[in-house]
Amino acid sequence: MTVLYILVPIAIALVITAIWIFNWAVNNGQYDDLDSPAHSILFDDDDPAHLAAQKREGDAERDDSDQDR
Amino acid sequence: MSHPTPCYHCGEPVPTGAPWHVTILGEQRHMCCPGCQAVAQAICSAGLESYYRHRTETSANPEAMPRALQDELELYDREDVQQRFAQRDGEEHQAILLVEGISCAACGWLIERHLRAQPGVTDVALNMGNQRLSLRWKDNQTRLSGLLKSLRKIGYAAHPYEPDKASEQIAAENRRYLRRLGLAGLLFMQVMMATMALSEEFNQDVTERMADLLRWASLLMTTPVVFYSCAPFFQGAWRDLRNRRLSMDVSVSLAIGGAYLAGIYATLIGSGEVYFDSVTMFALFLLAGRYLERRARQRTVESTAKLVNLLPPSALRVEADGSTQRIMLEELRCGDVVEVKPGESIPADGTIISGQSSVDESALSGEYLPIAKAAGDQVTAGTLNVEGPLRLRIDALGEQTRLSAIVRLLERAQSDKPRLGRLADDVAQYFLLTVLLAAVVVGGAWWWAADLHTAFWIVLAMLVATCPCALSLATPTALTTATGSLHKLGLLITRGHVLEGLPQIQTVILDKTGTLTEGRMTLEQILPFPGVDADQALRWAQMLESHSEHPIARAFGRSSEQAERCSNEPGQGLDGRCDGQPLRIGKPAFAMALTGLPEPERPAGDGQWLLLAGADGPLCWFALNDRLRSDAHELIDGLKARGLEIVLLSGDHQRVVDRVARELGIDQAIGNATPDDKLAFVQARQSAGEKVLMLGDGVNDVPVLASADISIAMGNASDLAKTNADAVLLGSHLSALLQAMAIARKTRAIMIENLGWATLYNLAVLPLAAFGFVTPALAALGMSLSSLLVVLNALRLTRIRPPVAAQHHSAQPEPSA
User: Fold this and answer.
1) B817: pLDDT confidence band, cut at 50, 70 and 90?
2) Are the C-beta atoms of residues B396 and B325 closer than 8 Å to each other?
3) A41 touching B, CB under 8 A?
4) Are A40 and B106 an interchain contact pair (Cβ–Cβ within 8 Å)?
5) Residue B36: domain span
6) What value does the mean pLDDT of chain B take?
7) Is B642 found in the same domain as B498?
8) For the packed helices B654-664 and B632-641, what is the interaxial angle rounded to 10 degrees?
9) B206–A15: do the CB atoms touch at under 8 Å?
10) Which of B222, B281, B284, B408 might form a disulfide with B184, Cβ 3.0–4.6 angstroms?
11) Taking 70 as the threshold, does the pLDDT of residue B48 lie above it?
12) Average of per-residue pLDDT across B459-480
């Protein structure tokens, strides 16, 4: 159990790091708007870039199967 | 006309034969006005058509938005003006804009997508919660005025946001609360692990040195929680003790402070129980409850923050040489001459020196029709110039205006506002007295039976075991969840006492204009004379009215064609040529002057009747009225069914007020009431011991809103009304109020259940603790279980289905084929 003499300080060091990161996130405004990101993800399907990427993928697959080319 | 097609864009009824339509999502959709048509076209041509697929609410009508003039927008490009709200970062500028017209999440998508496509814009982020848009742009590639204009094209009004002290302070405080909560949560987990190893129940074979290490480690980690996270409890307790009151904060501080001090003692002597896990857990639970409560409040404060300004941001000053210059409102001085164009708000109190127009004073007086004004008449800041350009000499600015007088009346009303008692604080008093008394008795008994040492540890265990965790969570959790549910239903609660107070209300006072009615003119009836086609008459009327900014003209909707040689006689009507023939629309006498014939008899029926006449005789009657909201009947019936007394209190003419009261079945109707009258009426009711709820919207209602026990403002109310109301009806669905009353009753029931359960738990654990059966592990277990139960019980309030919203969604404008 003597390993506790090392583990307890490590735990304390970890929690201090966690608190520091949390404070950074709060001060950086990460928690200011919890609603909009939840909605915006729903519309990403219609993102022109996303659609274009999907189309490219589809084209690529067709190109692969298209032996005449 | 009874069931007109709703406009695909904004949901307003489309006038018969309206020529406006846009092809959206592969179908032709009808629009109610050229404004909607232009916006819908702009959205489609920007390739953002799928906005219409995603939206869950109809969009805002672009014509209902405050107007912004090109030169006013350009003022925002001025370096000295921009300094107040924008930050410079190299060649990039950054500013926060307040956006109006956001109705659902899809609007956010539309705005962000549209702005990102503009050249020079580097970053756009819209916060849906408070409708603030943070924008970064390169000044050498685009101008702010251009961006504001492009937003307007897709139907949103935006203006720079200058942070006000109050909401900044709340935001900063909430961040501090979140840091407190995070600290308590992270440390709680560590402290829990360390102290669990010490508990006998877990039978960890720790050596004495190891136990010492764990005690010191948990003391080290508990200290920041007590001194940083729990600071608000101690401050609150100190404040309440100085006021000679026992509150929840006092009992919380006693439990935390007592357990922490005893823990230090136990650590120092190296034996005894440490309750550090209970201390940190307690702090975590309570902070979580309070943080949620604060966040709900911050959201409401932000979303009601300055959205619609009564005063225009700028004014057009007339210089001595006759030239005009646009200046910011702050630069205006008494004695200046300003020009106010039709459709603009009047910036300050003044006297008209030239021009003739009518002025919409509905916000200040409740009168829904504009009042005709000519040279020599006084006009008031914050009212709207409707018809013709006016030049006025400024008499009073800022603090001296009539608008400010109402604000002062409001401050007086606020200080007189009665406070409703809060359930939790009443319970806390008895609870604390009982626990303290029990502690003295039990401590004395153990001291007498055993020794001081045993008595100390027993009393400590008792204080921790009975610590009012569940009790102090009982009401905030119920209130927070109910606030969230109500928000979904469309009622935003800005002050805490609304839910507790709603079941106690006896009298409901309603305003008329803008509250029970929609607050604007709508076309109700068209009565053509024999031989005249109604559609043709409406088309002519629209052609004529499209020259006017009068609210009556807006009711006709605008036409793509315009009458020629149109002239406007303020207060009388319009004169012009349509399809080559002279026509007049307006007051019967004015219209018939064209024909020289006697006036035809006015049709029976309420409202404002306008006559369209040609050179050969009268053509058509148009009936206009300030239409009742569709759910006004439902509200009145619901309130009556609950046995509440209903009073209609309005600044409009008694005749009009009586008519509305008759139609809705309200027995008491008081008209011609000035803001002072209204305040006096409500205060008289209150001093008679009644609990009064006020529902209103205008600036003239503000003092009453501030004074009533519970006040609710309409969603489209003036700012001043919204910030001084205890709750805001978003989307102005009146029936949400009835829902709120039902939820408030249920919330009260749940709060009482929670308090009952928490008291029961404490009563049950008290004897156990008194006989020394409660160990730290058991105390922690009991505390978390009782708190969990209370929270789960409160969560039942989220399972309320929103029938109003459901109805609203199904009533979405689908093209009626």
Assistant:
1) very low
2) no
3) no
4) no
5) 1-64
6) 80
7) yes
8) 70
9) no
10) B284
11) yes
12) 80
Fill in the amino acid letter for B329.
L
Reported as a pLDDT band with limits 50, 70 and 90, residue B228 is very high
The answer to the question of residue B695 being in a domain is: yes
In angstroms, the separation between the Cα of residue B125 and the nearest Cα of chain A is 9
Q: Are B766 and B537 in contact (CB under 8 A)?
A: no
Q: What is the mean pLDDT of residues B451-458?
A: 84
Paired tokens of B623 = 């009936």
For position B555, which CATH number holds?
3.40.1110.10
Best interface-test mutation with A: which of B178, B191, B221 has the largest number of A CBs within 10 A? B178
The answer to pTM > 0.80 is no
What residue type is B335 in one-letter code? G
Could you tell me which residue, B353 or B422, shows the higher pLDDT?
Answer: B353
Neighbouring residues of B254: CB distance < 8 A, sequence distance ≥ 6: B237, B432, B463
CB pairs under 8 A between A and B: 74
Statement: residue B748 has pLDDT above 90: no
Q: Where are the beta strands (DSSP E) in B517-660?
A: 517-528, 564-569, 573-578, 581-586, 608-614, 617-628, 645-649
Residue B629 has φ and ψ, to the nearest 5°, of -65, 150
Domain parsing of chain A, residue ranges: 1-32, 34-69
- In 3D space, the residue among B622, B431, B644 whose CA is nearest the CA of residue B523 turns out to be B622
ipTM above 0.90, yes or no: no
Segment B273-286, tens digit of pLDDT: 888 988 898 899 88
Residues in a beta bridge with B575: B567, B584
Which of B354, B342, B345 has its CA nearest to residue B392?
B354
Q: How far apart, in whole angstroms, are the C-alpha atoms of residue B40 and residue B25?
A: 11
User: For residue B222, what pLDDT is reported?
Assistant: 94
Q: Are strands B692-696 and B710-714 parallel, antiparallel or unpaired?
A: parallel
Give the integer Cα–Cα distance in Å for B493 and B499.
8
pLDDT at B303 over 80: no
Domain for residue B722, yes or no?
yes
